[in-house]
Amino acid sequence: MFISEIYHSRQGEGFLTGTPSVLVRTSGCNLRCGFCDTPFASWNPEGKRLTVPEILDAVGQAALVELPAMQRQSAGQNSSMNDFSAGGFGWTEEAAAADEPTRHVILTGGEPMMQRDIVELCRTLHAAKFHITMETAGTIEHELDCDLMSISPKLSNSDPEIGRAGEWLAKHREARHRPEVVGQLIQRHEYQLKFVVSQPSDLDEILAYLDAVGDFDPARVLLMPEGIRQHDLDQREQWLMPLCEQHGFKLCRRLHIAWYGNSRRT
């Protein structure tokens, strides 16, 4: 498998926000999002080839590494995590304070579902008693061991500029919209649907996408402001929160930006 990085941090988004986790970032993606904040795993993929046993060994070592210090107050004081934990997931003070290796692994990218050995990796991590979150754009389907399928369908706001993308613009547009795949994934797994929102008009596209998906739980739909600067995220949250409340969705904050800034390996 082509791996960009493996490191210990905290989940910054979604139902498991604040949970100490080992992130396994695969390199390579079938999309080219204009707002991608990990271009080293998509636009210009970098990393090295590792076998599944080598990845498992690296995860075990990373699980023992001390977490990086946060710039702001304890994650447990943020109300968004209290909201999510009511859904059966999420950070708790007791779990975070426990002096033991983390058992949570986040498979992210790039697009981890592209990797040839992703099914074997999930099977191996599951057998080793790790909780697995799969971060995916929901364009590729596999039957695999996964505890939380975190799906981030890409809207038209993800389309890159033609001057940057070239022939990738058409490829991106063709590949990104796969509601039938998302529908199959949410039928098989515990899930969260995480939409990146740039402007209020994106909501119409989200609602149309959800209609195409079929049956879904509105409480598992997360609307996340687009941005890598805290100022931009704060501004978008002001108009995004009422939209969430109106439709029974949840606001998804990018708390890793608040804690660490837009920096790698955090």
Rg, Cα atoms, Å: 17 Å
Q: Classify the helix fraction into a percent range.
A: 25-40%
Largest sheet, described in full? 9 strands, mixed
The CATH topology label is TIM Barrel
H/E element order: EEEHHHEHEEHHHEHEHEH
Identify the overall geometry.
globular
Provide the residue-averaged pLDDT.
90
DSSP strand count: 9
**SS field, number of helical segments:** 10
Low-confidence regions: 73-98
Separation of termini? 22 Å
Determine the CATH superfamily.
Answer: Aldolase class I
The total tally of domains equals 1
Which structural class do the helices and strands define? alpha/beta
Kindly report the spatial arrangement of strands forming the biggest sheet.
3-1-2-4-5-6-7-8-9
CATH architecture designation: Alpha-Beta Barrel
Question: Can you describe what's shown?
Answer:
It is a single chain. With 266 residues, the chain is α/β, with parallel strands linked by helices. The chain has a single domain (2-260), classed as Aldolase class I (TIM Barrel, Alpha-Beta Barrel), CATH 3.20.20. The chain is built from 10 helices and 9 strands. The chain has helices at 52-62, 79-85, 93-97, 118-127, 162-165, 168-176, 179-188, 202-213, 230-247, 255-260, and strands spanning 2-10, 20-26, 48-49, 104-108, 131-136, 148-151, 191-197, 221-225, 250-251. Strands 3-1-2-4-5-6-7-8-9 form a 9-stranded mixed sheet, sandwiched between helices. Strand 7 (191-197), helix 8 (202-213) and strand 8 form a beta-alpha-beta unit. Helix 1 crosses helix 4 and helix 7 packs across helix 8 (202-213). It is globular. The model is unreliable at 73-98 (pLDDT under 50).
